What we know:
The structure is a homodimer of 307-residue chains. In chain A, the strands form three sheets. Chain A has a four-stranded mixed beta sheet. In chain A, strands 1-5-6 form a three-stranded mixed beta sheet. Chain A has a three-stranded antiparallel beta sheet with strand order 2-4-3. The first copy, chain A, has two domains: 14-135, Bira Bifunctional Protein, Domain 2 (BirA Bifunctional Protein, domain 2, 2-Layer Sandwich); 138-300, BirA Bifunctional Protein, domain 2, CATH 3.30.930. Chain A has 307 residues and is of the alpha+beta class. Chain A is globular, with a radius of gyration of 20 Å. In chain A, 38% of the residues lie in helices and 17% in strands. Chain A has eleven helices and ten strands. In chain A, strand 9 (271-277) and strand 10 form a beta hairpin. At the A-B interface, helix 1, strand 1, strand 2, strand 3 and helix 4 of A face helix 1, strand 1, strand 2, strand 3 and helix 4 of B.
Amino acid sequence: MTSKVIKPVKGTRDFYPADQAWQNWLYLKSKVISESFGYQEYEGPILEPYSLYLAKSAEEIIKKQSFIIPTKDKMDQANLVLRPELTPTLARMVAAKEYSLVFPLRWWSWGRFFRYESPQKGRGREFYQWNLDLLGQDCPNADAEIITIGIRFLASLGFTPDEVVIKINDRKYLDSKFNLINISQDKKLSVFRVIDKKAKLSKSDFRTMLRKEGLSKLQIRDLELAIKDNDYSQESPWLTELFSSLTDLGVADWVDFDPAIVRGFDYYTDTVFEAQPRNKQGRSLFGGGRYQNLISDVGGTREIGGV
Amino acid sequence: MTSKVIKPVKGTRDFYPADQAWQNWLYLKSKVISESFGYQEYEGPILEPYSLYLAKSAEEIIKKQSFIIPTKDKMDQANLVLRPELTPTLARMVAAKEYSLVFPLRWWSWGRFFRYESPQKGRGREFYQWNLDLLGQDCPNADAEIITIGIRFLASLGFTPDEVVIKINDRKYLDSKFNLINISQDKKLSVFRVIDKKAKLSKSDFRTMLRKEGLSKLQIRDLELAIKDNDYSQESPWLTELFSSLTDLGVADWVDFDPAIVRGFDYYTDTVFEAQPRNKQGRSLFGGGRYQNLISDVGGTREIGGV
């Protein structure tokens, strides 16, 4: 007998009580870890104006993968979007109270997010995500704190450094390489986007995409060498301090420098990181990075960086 | 200085840490009460197919107040809607596992809902709502249990029976009045909708709307008398048993019979109730009712009623 029960939307999940118990367990894990490091819980709306993401965020996600609700009310100045991520909301909330909030500010959140892409194993169109941000402390120690909390969360779920690696890079370090190879600043973001896709591309497709961005054969060869070069010590005091801090925090076994990590969001300016399974099976477990300009990009007047 | 910070969408709320702490407190109150009565937590998707609400639910809410996302993928057979309420999702989930779930089934949920109406005090376009349902036990005792848990929740927030009243009615009782007045079955739902709006209408507007539904002057006079008549004892054994049960449960002070209560959802078949401030200031605090046909309306084959 074929069931005629109305089906849920593709890429969404029903949480029967056993599933909900698992969700609650995961939420409580993230709550305990976040709050033990002094982070405060917050939450934003699920509906945000399209304009919030246009300035920064990730062009591909917003233009191709967002759920857009056409405005039907003159109160709404822009189309509405189901939030694909939380950082722009955080930036908007912090900018709105930039003179009354106390910095450094440690906030965390556990919420639902939406991407209108093809549903695939491990990621639906509607999914839960943990967010953790430290704002107003612009030094590698802050980045190390966030990365360490992420590692403590993985450890609390039973993962070991044999199973997961957190790959770390510095976009400023890549910038300095771009300068040496004469890749101009206006091409930077689009070249970042190509590098971000590298793991999913064949070598020749990767080169073709770089050529489309206007890079010469010589520049491509130099870029390929640059994103393999794992000695940052002479060129990035930031990374040197970050890795030293991570060693002090006792998580050196979990972290690796990887000059090919850039992450998909346009607002990252410095450190970027991504937790990956060591066996390369499955998606990344978490990721993030430092954003120095996002608060002013959404209208703030103070210079407040975050990670 | 005018702030140029990007504004949130009208009718949505930012939950700064102090607001989120209050949300968590409210969530935990509802969790403790629900689970002390043996209810299990569940959750559904925020995105649902438009078709789920079309069959039943509330015509006005779905057609005029829902956030609709046009389909852009052939995987989605109907337009997507941000859920305005949870009962149709619950019905869909129960119908999908109608032969493996154990009845009576006690489920509760705390989640976010969406209505694209003009934001007003006490209700945004995006809001949180507690849901509590008891399925597979078709007697007034089940209705009394749900109403009592709602009252315990209000009491745990510090409300007293001097401040809040739960008004209770039975749609079947109204049906029997309709029969006496010769209001035909096909007009039933639309007359219910007019009665549901009565509190917000002047006497003459109320009459005008009933006349538009095709009722004669005589029928309108009889209907007005019927929804004032507060003696159900000869005509509704269901209400008699329900009020007796509520007295046994020690909440008689909180409840009143009100033949003008019908609630806005089309799927209610029997008991309907609504918690209102005694001073008539502000919106209703919660509401609900018994739905005997919703599981089969979404495609189930077993006859499972719920409240």
